[in-house]
């Protein structure tokens, strides 16, 4: 059984880009000869021929069927598309698929282990860190990256670290509680 966080009050949080996000490097992109790429996604090697302009989020969703990565804005504003690229959180709507050639990508589908949910997933479940759930995959991936950099963050550091991820349900307080709970291990995984 997982523990339940005591607090359920919601509070707003500022929004700007997550510091670890790779910025848009689209340049003069457009149609062109297909790009052959090889990328390891959730531990599995994938090969694809994509247009040079194909974004990583569209490779994941449309070519690989990994629809847990959401598109909320397509303008690098919301963070719903956040995945890990070589361990660092990126907004996959700002990364060309070709830029992931040779890299390792982790999406929300690849986070849980054989023993159950990832501790951050378990914490979001236990602390009610979601409402409609649309932002949740991106929030969780950003939180995993944040905790990798700051294993014991303060509340302020969590709020700062997640500023690039927006929740239209405004459930920020429980999201922050979830990340703090994951950090202190009070809602450790295995709750699938
Ligand atoms: Fe990528 Fe909103 S869909 S930041
Ligand atoms: Fe609905 Fe965040 S839980 S958008």
Please characterize this protein's 3D structure.
There is one protein chain. The protein is α+β, with helices and mostly antiparallel strands and 192 residues long. The chain has five helices and five strands, in the order ββαβββαααα. 26% of the residues lie in helices and 13% in strands. A five-stranded mixed sheet has the order 2-1-5-3-4, sandwiched between helices. A hairpin with a 2-residue loop joins strand 1 (35-41) and strand 2. The chain starts with 34 loop residues before the first strand and ends in an 8-residue tail after the last helix. The site of one FE2/S2 (inorganic) cluster has 12 residues, from loops.
Topology of helices and strands:
Elements: E1 35-41, E2 44-50, H1 56-63, E3 82-85, E4 88-91, E5 104-106, H2 119-126, H3 136-149, H4 155-161, H5 172-184
Parallel strand pairs: 1-5
Antiparallel strand pairs: 1-2, 3-4, 3-5
Helix pairs in contact: 2-5
Bound molecules: FE2/S2 (inorganic) cluster (2 copies).
One FE2/S2 (inorganic) cluster (FES) binds at residues 71-74, 76-81, 91, 93.
CATH class of the largest domain: Alpha Beta
Mean pLDDT: 86
Ligand set: FE2/S2 (inorganic) cluster
User: What is the terminal-to-terminal distance?
Assistant: 10 Å
Within the CATH hierarchy, at the fold level, what is the topology of the largest domain?
A: Ubiquitin-like (UB roll)
CATH superfamily of the largest domain: Beta-grasp domain
The DSSP helix count reads: 5
> What's the CATH architecture name of the largest domain?
Roll
- Tell me the strand order in the biggest sheet: 2-1-5-3-4
- What's the order of the H and E elements? EEHEEEHHHH
